């Protein structure tokens, strides 16, 4: 279904991706707490996600996708028989889509920040 130029399946996919990132962040927070990490270093209370941590995890994921795509492309260019052109192209498209999504989220955040700053009190 297309709602105002946005496909509902794309929205559902983005929500699923955000939930998966949140689950990874909760898992990493519980692992860190189990290893004896000093709780005074943790600014956010247990069970709550910090926006900065979620954003960093998301950016790290995009960076990892781009790095793996670049390495796969280099392997293909060097003549590695284990790497096919379709794998390289799919990896590059995934990295490109994740980067474009990150840019759009950044643009929305900047726009929201400007809207808030321009509000009259």
UniProtKB/TrEMBL annotation:
It comes from the Bacteria. It is found in: Bacterial flagellum basal body. InterPro entries: FliE. Keywords: Bacterial flagellum, Cell projection, Cilium, Flagellum. Belongs to the FliE family. This is Flagellar hook-basal body complex protein FliE. It comes from Undibacterium hunanense.
